[in-house]
Every structure is written in C-alpha cells, then in structure tokens.
Amino acid sequence: MATINFEEYKVKVQQAIELRIEKGLLSDPEGFILIDGFVNIHYQKDMGSAFILGGPTIPAVAVVGKGSGLIYTFALKVLLPNIQI
Hints:
Blueprint: H1 6-22, E1 32-34, E2 39-42, E3 57-65, E4 71-75, H2 76-79
C-alpha cells in the first residue's frame, strides 16, 4: 500500500466537503474546521470483551462544527474516488 500525504490532498478534500455543505448534507451556523490529517475508522466483525488492536480500517477525513462541536467523518474514497489507497 502506498503512503499518501494529507497536505497533497488537502485542497481536493476541502473542495469535496464544501460541495457537500453546499448541498446541505451537513450544517453548522458557525462553519467547520477541517482536521489536519487522516482518520482511520476501525471496524471488526466480532465484538467481545477484549480490546483488539490492528485490523481493517476505513481511511477517512473529518471536520468539526465550530458551533456544535459535532464531528463529521467522510470516507476518503467517497470524497476522492480516484485516490489510490
């Protein structure tokens, strides 16, 4: 798997998120702050009492509503379908 740098994709990510804001898919009267990096969302097929490290993840980016504090995450491959990850 190739390593990608957030700074190389930051403008494209911002544009893709702004498009979703324009469409009304998320809103905050005070605007949003883009988290300056990638977020990995871990998932697993089984739940138990043990904390599992590693495993599959969904590469994502996130924004935080300035007024609400809500965190919105976006799967990177959906925002940028042509990205090689």
